[in-house]
Every structure is written in structure tokens, then in C-alpha cells.
């Protein structure tokens, strides 16, 4: 088993890059165990991953990257506002339950994109910027349930 340590800095100018690096690593490896700790002196999250390498399939051709949906404006209609409020409440509860910062669950822009796009299936969540396999496996069902209930 191998170990990798990530530093997830809180300021927005670092957050996306740090989280993207973590997401890419999670997709490429078999994670066995996760430990997190907040380093208050320097204000960042330390994420320790225990993992096994996934063996890449030989002679595979990667599909071209598709452009993912991202909400262009944050202007929402009343229904979308209700969805966004419900998603933010869910995200807060989930973050407390997992002892993680809310942005680890989903960023505000990702939640706005979900509220505007209104996916009905997990596959449609993949079409939204910020939603990869890991996030959908962990939270996809709950997000879709929220969308169905509103």
C-alpha cells in the first residue's frame, strides 16, 4: 500500500487547483483509506490517502474531453432558488456529518449549475463541470433525490 499527502488550501485562488489535483488522483488510484486534518496555523486541509495503483489498460485510446455544463450566470428563477437552497442545506449537513469543509462536497458554482441544469440521472451529473466519478458515486443519489423532491 502506498501513501500520498495532499494539501488543500482554503483561499479560492488555490482551492480549484488543489481540489482538481486530488480529484484526478482519486480517479486514477484505488483508495484504501483516507485521513483528513485541518492545519489551523496555516489554514489548510491535509488529506492523507492510502492507495494501490490502478493498472491502466494497454492500448486504450482516451475519449476527447467534452465541454461540461457550467452555469454562465448566477441569476436563478424561483424554482432554481428553491433547489439551490435545498442543495446548500444538504451540503452543510453532509459536510458536518463527514467532518469536511462544505467545498469538499460541492462548490457554490457546482450547486448553481445543478439547480439550472436539473439532471435526472447520474449520467447527466457527469455533464456538469466539477462532477466526476468520485463525487457522483459519493453524492449523486442524494443530489438526484433532492431534485426529485422539489
UniProtKB/TrEMBL annotation:
Pfam families hit by this protein: HRDC (PF00570)
InterPro entries: HRDC-like_sf, HRDC_dom, HRDC_dom_sf, RNase_D-like
Domain HRDC: 77-150
Domain of life per record: Bacteria
SMART domains: HRDC (SM00341)
Record-given protein name: HRDC domain protein
Amino acid at each position: 500500500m502506498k501513501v500520498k499527502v495532499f494539501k488543500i488550501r482554503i483561499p479560492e485562488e488555490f482551492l480549484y487547483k488543489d481540489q482538481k489535483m486530488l480529484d484526478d488522483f482519486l480517479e486514477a488510484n484505488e483508495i484504501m483509506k483516507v485521513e483528513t486534518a485541518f492545519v489551523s496555523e496555516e489554514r489548510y486541509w491535509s488529506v492523507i490517502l492510502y492507495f494501490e495503483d490502478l493498472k491502466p489498460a494497454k492500448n486504450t485510446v482516451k475519449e476527447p474531453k467534452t465541454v461540461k455544463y457550467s452555469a454562465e450566470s448566477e441569476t436563478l428563477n424561483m424554482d432554481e432558488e428553491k433547489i439551490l437552497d435545498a442543495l446548500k442545506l444538504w451540503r452543510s449537513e453532509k459536510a458536518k456529518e463527514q467532518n469536511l469543509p462544505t467545498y469538499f462536497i460541492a462548490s457554490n458554482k457546482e450547486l448553481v449549475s445543478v439547480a439550472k441544469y436539473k439532471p435526472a440521472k447520474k449520467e447527466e451529473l457527469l455533464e456538469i463541470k466539477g462532477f466526476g466519478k468520485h463525487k457522483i458515486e459519493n453524492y449523486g443519489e442524494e443530489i438526484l433525490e433532492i431534485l426529485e423532491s422539489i
